[in-house]
Model the fold of this input.
Amino acid sequence: MLTVAVPLTIGLVGLAMALNLWRLLAGPALEDRILALDTLTVNAIALVMLAGIALGTRAYFEAALILAMMGFVGTVALAKYRLGGDIIE
Done:
């Protein structure tokens, strides 16, 4: 069952990433692009986790945690820039 589910899920997450990339490039507003970037980060985390499951190693889970922390900081910085125009006060 897992041999079928993991490749199928990787393909679906890849499709979701392609759609998020399209929204990131064609977003009409900056808010749409920030949200697309955040969602793209979440999908990248899912893809790294799925790679860890498929390969059976735990190193990918640590990489996904680092990617999650960097994605959070990036989203907060972009939102703060959008609200005030200055990231570091």
